[in-house]
Amino acid sequence: MEFRDLKAQYITLKKKIDDSINSILAKSNFILGSQVAELEEQLAEYVGVKYCITCANGTDALVLMLIEWGIGAGDAVFVPDFTYIATASAAAIRGATPVFVDIDKETFNMSPSSLEEKIQLTLKEGRLKPKVIVAVDLFGQPANYMHIEKIAQKYDLLLLEDGAQGFGGEICKKRACSFGHAATTSFFPAKPLGCYGDGGAVFTNDKKINVDLRSLRSHGRSPEDKYDNRVIGINSRLDTLQAAILLPKLEAFKEYELEAVNKVAKHYNHSLQDYVKTPFVEDGYLSSWAQYTIRLESKNIRDDLQQHLKINKIPSMIYYPRPLHKQSAFSNLTKQKDSFYNSEMMADTVLSLPIHPYMNEEDIEEVCDTIKLYFKNNK
Ligand SMILES: *Cc1c(COP(=O)(O)O)cnc(C)c1O
For residue 188, how far is its CA from the centre of ligand 1 (angstroms)? Predict the structure, then answer.
């Protein structure tokens, strides 16, 4: 059994993907070929925003937005404490200071009340200037944008949606990657919509961001004169090959994959709810299930269950065993350890199970039966 079966997806889409790759090889239009623009148009339409600007990976997508907004030394960038490192390192790469915010213990996403506390604390301390909130759609479920958008407005902060795991999710039919002033995603192979290498994108309705980012991703080159670089940018484009791979994959994602992965989650919920704490999806929200993450009563039980799954050849992962405030790279930043109660609890008690759109009923049942057996043996 695979944790996320990319081979099953390839076998299903092989003809289309192979044809698509071969057409790029034949044309040799490897950088910014027409497929990149075609993909950007389709992605923007699907998400429901005016512009999509692809780039080399999801981390660069965040960095590009922080460059665009002039974020740097002395600026505070509020990020959830429980997420992948890139959410915070993008700010640190720019010389800004990531300020960690505790999460909601039901959704795993940034807690709006902790966010407001951290903003007020930062203002009171007066050392850093609050500038940006980066909210993450963790494990596929969009963050609480109704609430977070209000806080951004109240304190006049920019809001960036890190939708690296959220692509395909929804809040009341409004799609992930359409919240905030801009949103980013990643096409890393294991994300809800993945390519065959690294890839990423920024989404926005802002015309200036669209123009600026197309320049910034190509060394800040001027739109009018390609030999004049108007600002310092980076080299961060999506390869035409990756765009060509993503086009048929996006079609499958829209046609059936998102629905299929939600079916798997539903099956898990039904079979496991009497044994473990199954993931909570808020009313009106749709998850794209980047991860299916259960919670156990203690670290001991979690570690023990993972061992039991491993012995039975079932892969599982811990996302994330170490919250951001405990990362060595950020050891110079934090003093207030006690304010990350939920994040620390999750790091000790979460376990992510195999999930992907091509998972069959037998495999789902095998995972569930193995978990049930563990609890039967350990009553
Ligand atoms: C994967 C991920 C990123 C970074 O994306 P890459 O394409 O790997 O650079 C950023 N934020 C979150 C929440 C992620 O899961």
Answer: 8
- pLDDT band per the 50, 70, 90 thresholds, residue 338: low
Question: Angle of helix 6-27 relative to helix 240-252, nearest 10 degrees?
Answer: 140
What is residue 304's predicted lDDT score, i.e. its pLDDT? 98
304: which residues sit within 8 A by CB, 6+ positions away? 374, 378
Tokens of 160: 């960036």
Categorise residue 191: left if φ over 0, alpha if ψ from -120 to 50, beta otherwise.
beta
Closest approach atom of ligand 1 to CA 87: 11
Q: Tokens for 155?
A: 């304190």
Q: Return d(Cα 294, Cα 168) in angstroms, integer.
A: 21
Strand order in the sheet with 285-286: 174-175, 170-171, 285-286
Is the pLDDT score of 250 beyond 90? yes
- Per the prediction, the chain carries an average pLDDT of 97
What pLDDT sits at residue 336? 56
- In angstroms, how far apart are the furthest CA atoms of the chain? 71
Which residue from 199, 187, 241, 248 is spatially nearest to 21, judged by alpha carbons? 241
Ligand 1 mutation pick, 165, 187, 198, 288, max ligand atoms within 8 A of CB? 165
Q: How open is the CA angle 12-18-21, to the nearest 5 degrees?
A: 135
Strand order in the sheet with 75-80: 51-55, 200-204, 182-186, 158-162, 129-136, 75-80, 97-101
